[in-house]
Design a protein that fits this description.
By secondary structure, this protein is an alpha+beta fold. A hairpin with a 2-residue loop joins strand 4 and strand 5. The longest helix is centred in the first third of the chain and has 11 residues. It starts with a helix and ends with a helix.
């Protein structure tokens, strides 16, 4: 899942900025729902997408699909940090996609709250 998130950052253009500014990507929490086993050495597809963001966190969904269908879904709450602390995700997004706003928050899904 870490590798897939790094690949997502590269595809979105964020990885270059993260490396240039020496930010650290950190996971704050992970939730995984398992539907079926993935036997050792079995093939699967791992799809990652940025779902939304708020003043501190990015929320990422990662879906494992195997030959038999959905195997697992993971939700990750991640943050970028610099020497001063957390970097506001809105500023990060603005740097690579000006004018983009977060889709409606799905925090209740990630936090179990409304």
């Amino acid at each position: 899942m870490d590798y897939a998130r790094t690949h997502l950052l590269a595809r979105t253009g964020l990885l270059d900025q993260i490396l240039r500014l020496r930010w650290q990507a950190m996971v704050g929490a992970t939730w995984v729902t398992y539907r079926r086993s993935l036997p050792l050495f079995s093939t699967y597809l791992l799809a990652s997408r940025l779902v939304c963001w708020d003043r501190r966190w990015f929320y990422i969904e990662q879906i494992f699909t195997a030959r038999d269908g959905l195997a697992a879904v993971g939700w990750i709450k991640g943050v970028l940090r610099d020497t001063n602390g957390s970097v506001d995700p809105r500023n990060v997004i603005e740097a690579v996609a000006p004018g983009t706003v977060s889709p409606p928050s799905r925090k209740r899904l990630l936090h179990g709250t409304t």
